[in-house]
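Researcher: Structure prediction, please.
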Amino acid sequence: MSASSRSVLPSLVVYPATPRDLEPLAEVLTQVFHPPLGLQRWIYPIRKLGIREDLRLRLGSRDPYYCCLAASVGSRVVGTAEISLRAMAHGKYPYLSNLAVLPGWRRQGVARQLLLGAEGVVQVWGYRNLHLHVLEDNFPARQLYAQLRYIPIERTSRLWRWLGVPPQLLLCKWLS
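Model: Predicted structure follows.
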């Protein structure tokens, strides 16, 4: 791993998002998960509207076990992650979802700082572990998670592949 991929931007700030952050967060999520490439650019505004409304509902839910983190450099939001409780086989556990960093800001420590911020949130909630899913073939993400001591505990069934869902790994990190 190169030194630049480990660097943390000196002006990077990770903070709990508020409704004021709704528009830039929706932009990050839409660009990362539904990039406006080819014909997709025509439905990009509709996808972004749907993402913004879903996020607006989550941000306004007042659920004590939900947190959306924003990562900004200066006044620009460049990444986000959400933490909530998710029902799993043996109860409810803290779960990280929608970790997204704008392409031009990747490999500069943004995702790492969002993960560390999420771990802090989970500890404040009184939990000692954090779960997340990663696509099995997303090797850059898997490398980051491994560096931060996330370990695979489950693999999605191959049955999902028949439905067009790529295989995923459930990772967990036990926090000190």
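Model: The longest strand covers residues 76-88.
Researcher: Thanks, that helps.
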